[in-house]
UniProtKB/TrEMBL annotation:
This is D-serine deaminase-like pyridoxal phosphate-dependent protein. It comes from the Bacteria. Pfam families: Ala_racemase_N. The lineage of its organism: Bacteria, Bacillati, Actinomycetota, Actinomycetes, Pseudonocardiales. Residues 20-190 form the Alanine racemase N-terminal domain. InterPro entries: Ala_racemase_N, D-amino_acid_metab_enzyme, PLP-binding_barrel. CDD domains: PLPDE_III_DSD_D-TA_like_2 (cd06813). It comes from Lentzea atacamensis.
Length: 393
């Protein structure tokens, strides 16, 4: 029984604390590689935020390089020799980090920054002055726009058409101090949107319809855009996809690598997919500190709300013992989290309840360390980014 194994392994720890079950983590890593069908997977570090676990993923077959969420993070991972292939997934306006990048020859060989406009190049030049070639990745928008004024997908790059991509690629190549080496095109309306949301059958139908139409369109447009870019630039990589879209993105002939991170931990937002089901690997434990009535147990702390829309699916969820739920009028709180259900009748003061976060790496913004479990014991305890005194978000 998993609950017993977790309780026994952590019996000497006082909640709140966080764990990663390495057996589940390794299972998820292997399943992601299977789904990638031969494409290398770039590890999305924002979904991990534990240096030891980023390295653990990179040591496995099928994984290569890191997709960082800030330039400062990429510079730090380079200093720690976590990887020599560090792609910053978002444009940066961090002048201090740009200056450090420009001054560090090793980092310039390892780190690739993201741009989607000439204004980004202008900002870099203004921040650091004359500089040696910086590695650049062009972000292509692959949101779905079926009708004028209709935008389905994240608001990311303004570069939407193959012609726009070719024009920008040519301008980057003509610009002194920059070298275009890659393209990224993230289909968030598929990779980050579950097609089987629990208890929402009508929403599921709508999402599947959108994805069935969006998928072929984005593959055709991304292929055309990459073909156009290759006419003016020698690309080292074309990155696409995410945990939720590995199979689809892998069918795109223009894509050379995929990206994934959340699937290693299996947070609750990834319960809503038909094609795969990750094991919950990242958990946190809370203590029962009150029993307001027979069917309610109140836990200490727990209000670790995920980013995004302020909707119930961003709340953490009780996992073990089974049969618990939070209260609709109280939810997970700053200092207390009431849970109710038949399983609450058996809970006593001091018992622990195991919780799951809605997202992956965001959990570790709350903890300085994470306990890594293997089998029925704690194998070791390692610092999170926060525990190493780094906050990149």
């Amino acid at each position: 029984m998993r609950r017993t194994r977790l309780d026994v392994a952590t019996k000497d720890l006082d909640p709140p604390f966080a764990i990663v079950d390495l057996d589940a983590f390794d299972y998820n890593a292997a399943d992601l590689a299977r789904r990638a069908a031969g494409h290398p997977i770039r590890v999305a570090s924002k979904s991990i935020r534990v240096r030891d676990l980023v390295s653990r993923a990179l040591e496995r077959p099928g994984y290569r390089g890191v997709m960082c969420y800030s330039l400062a993070e990429a510079l730090w991972l380079s200093e720690q020799n976590v990887s020599d292939d560090l792609l910053v997934a978002y444009p940066t306006a961090d002048r201090a980090s740009l200056q450090k990048l420009a001054a560090n020859e090793i980092a310039r060989q390892r780190v690739t920054i993201m741009v989607d406009s000439i204004e980004h190049l202008d900002f870099v030049d203004a921040a650091i002055g004359p500089h040696s070639d910086l590695r650049v990745c062009l972000e292509l928008d692959v949101s779905w726009r079926p009708l004028p004024g209709v935008h389905i997908g994240p608001r990311r790059s303004p570069v939407h058409t193959p012609q726009q991509a070719k024009v920008l690629a040519a301008k980057i190549n003509q610009r002194r101090g920059f070298k275009l080496v890659g393209v990224m095109a993230y289909e968030g309306q598929i990779a980050g949107l579950g097609d089987n949301p629990p208890g929402q059958p009508l929403r599921a139908i709508g999402i599947r319809l959108i994805q069935s139409k969006s998928g072929p369109e984005l593959i055709a447009r991304r292929t055309a855009a990459v073909t156009a870019i290759r006419q003016v630039a020698d690309l080292e990589f074309v990155n696409g996809g995410g945990t939720g879209s590995l199979e689809l993105t892998g069918t795109d002939p223009s894509v050379t690598e995929l990206a994934a991170g959340s699937g290693l931990f299996g947070p609750t937002l990834f319960d809503g997919y038909q094609a795969f089901k990750p094991e919950p690997a990242a958990l946190f434990a809370l203590s029962v500190v009150r029993k307001p009535n027979k069917r309610t147990a109140t836990l200490f702390a727990g209000g670790y709300i995920a980013s995004g829309t302020p909707t119930p699916d961003r709340q953490p969820s009780p996992y073990l013992p089974e049969g618990l739920k939070t209260l609709g009028l109280e939810g997970a709180g700053e200092v207390q989290t009431p849970v109710t259900g038949k399983a609450a009748e058996q809970l006593k003061i001091g018992d622990r309840v195991w919780m799951r976060h809605a997202k992956a790496g965001e959990l570790f913004e709350r903890f300085d360390e994470v306990h890594l479990l293997h089998g029925d014991r704690i194998e070791r305890t390692v610092p999170t980014y926060r525990g190493e005194r780094h906050n990149f978000g």
